[in-house]
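Quick one: structure tokens for this chain, please?
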Amino acid sequence: MDVADFVRGLRSIKFWAGDPSLEVLYRRTGVATSTLSDALNPQRRRLPSLELVRSLVRACGANAVQAAQWERAWRSARARDSHLAAAGPLATSRLLPLAEDWTPRQLPPDISGFTGRADALVALSGIRRDAPATVITGTAGVGKTALAVHWAHQLLSFQA
């Protein structure tokens, strides 16, 4: 794995996390947007710092296992880049999580004190998991967003 492959992987997780803007990533990481842009630049010649990679993958919703995979991949690419690796090719074919393995985890916090709407939650729970989208309709101010966020958190707790 070379620097370009590693950066392509970083760009891929950013995409699968909903393609947050650099400004959103800045708010999540505290890392300047120019630094984030440089880290995601496919033309860069050196790896971004390990701390930057850790911050970026966490901001994109990496769980502990995925974050550890990214750290191992960074260390492997760094060793190769620095010519510190032993002779022979590095076995890095499955160090990075594949995009299809990536589950974005960027929900807002669950609604505290969510009550009622049991009938709506039952109806939402009956929707097929392979449905491409679910639409919740209603008049302004009736709690559509609160319902959607609460339901999404329930789905994640069942999948965890």
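Helices lie at 3-16, 22-29, 33-39, 50-59, 64-81, 118-125, 144-159.
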